[in-house]
Amino acid sequence: MARTVNGCATHGPDARVDRIYATEDLLPAVLDVDVIEVPLTESDHHIVRLALDGDVLTDILIRLPAVLQAV
What we know:
Helices cover 24% and strands 31% of the residues. It has 1 helix and 4 strands.
């Protein structure tokens, strides 16, 4: 997910600067992604928060070594 932030003198025009990357293997565990806006006086970045389902993530991580060994 990328978030567009407002342009300003410290970082130029509107830009996508805050992201989360995940492999396709982890996508079933994603419950929610949201952005916590931070005032420009504190940072030119926002906080990107990712919520994961712990049970689904555990299942993925348990089976992942077997998938990797098969490759």
